[in-house]
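Fold this: GGDEF domain-containing protein
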Amino acid sequence: MALWSDRQGSEQTVKSQAQGALEQLARVASENVAGYLQFASQIVQVNRANMASGLLSADDAAGQLLNFQALLTSVPQLNGVLVGHSDGRFVFLRRDGPDSLGRFSRVIEVRPERRVLTSTYDARGVLTGQSAQADPYDPRERPWYRQAQAAAGHVVWTDPYVFASSGQPGVTVASALSTPGGAVVIGADVQLRQLAEFLQDVQISANGRAFVTDERGHAIATSRAWPGEASAGSIPLLRDVADPALRALLDREARPALAPGTHWYDVSGQQFAAVIRPVEVQPGVTWMIGVYAPTTDFTSGLGGNRRPLIFVLLVSLIGSLLAWPVVLRATRPLVELQRQATTDYLTGLPNRASFVAQLEESLRGGGAGALGLAVFDLDGFKAVNDTFGHHAGDEVLHAVGARMLAALRAGDTLGRLGGDEFALLVQATSREEVRLRVEGVLEAVARRPVVVDGVAHALASTAGLAFLDLHEGTLSSGQWLARADTALIRGKRRGKGRVWVEGEVTMPTLFR
């Protein structure tokens, strides 16, 4: 009975470890996908406002192309920007060529007669080709145009489809506007291929997969290529391309769209776990972020192998009655104990002890460039806890941790120090780059409200930043943290929602 109880406890630990890891991966993926898609919606709203105010002329194709070029240069999430008119006029610019550094434009004029001009440009902006051949394309027949016209004044998202211009799968975000010259629809294209490239960076286990789907079950994006054949010219359904593990989950759910939550199921005698999280891309339209893997991938870290139970049984039977409890304790997952000792239970980030250990390692290791230590706290978090309770506060910290983690670059180290306080260690080529990366984390936190139980909580964060002088060997990790924390405290007295660098805040500012 004791052996059976220990086995049950070990299996429960494995399930808990798998669920925790997948939930954290799903949070990171969903926050990134939501943030990634949000840019397209914001661009459409900005262009619509500029056109409504007259800053961007609905009748100036050349001016629109210049505006679109600036947007594509500054917003990597966008694949294309467009304007369609009720009389059939059309202005469009998208990425083109190797590494998407070139540009492809299409301008359709209808007065005094229909004329279609397509142009291509290289990465330097030099015109490489131009054609004025007849083209039957009509923006008024496209899904994005019809949907936007049917919901005038609102931002709409199309179902995934194949772009006519590039032949690539994607979605279009659009909004209609009434102008003196007639109705205009402003839109932005997002290629699904770019979402897939993002998912490939999610550190899923060797046998797991992250994916994005919609309410109709389309295979929008995945972290690894699907084993099934995709149908040319259309977005396949998950059922048509899924691997056996996902197909088993789809069969179990018996519906096109997977239900949110954690799912446990068996495939050919192997236990799998899946976490499904919803992402609202517009009111009434929800996509799903899914992450799944066999639970054996989480018994000794991602990709690890579980020690066979039969080995435990043999050792226990061969050993003496006095020795077998020791053997059983030794076979319990040591990785789980290590994880508990180094990981913040709420966010899945390194805890204070683990972060300080990494900081001390960086202080010993030196390195070229600039090394920055930032301490953050959340502006407005206390009001969430006091008004809505600790459950809401915990959910907010979950979301904020995922947003911060998603904004990091390779080599950055993020940890939770406790409460609503986080710390970030950044190694970069210059102090300016360090500061920009810390500002990027602040932007990720404040980009949109955190929704908990239907209530939107608008949050921001303030950071104190200290640049570590590795030649100043007399300072400990605790002293460096104190310097960054002091910059934060003094800076918040002057203004919240920004990065305050140590030395910017002097003593006289304490009394302002």
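The first strand starts at residue 80 and ends at 85. Confidence is low (pLDDT under 50) at residues 2-7, 300-340, 506-512.
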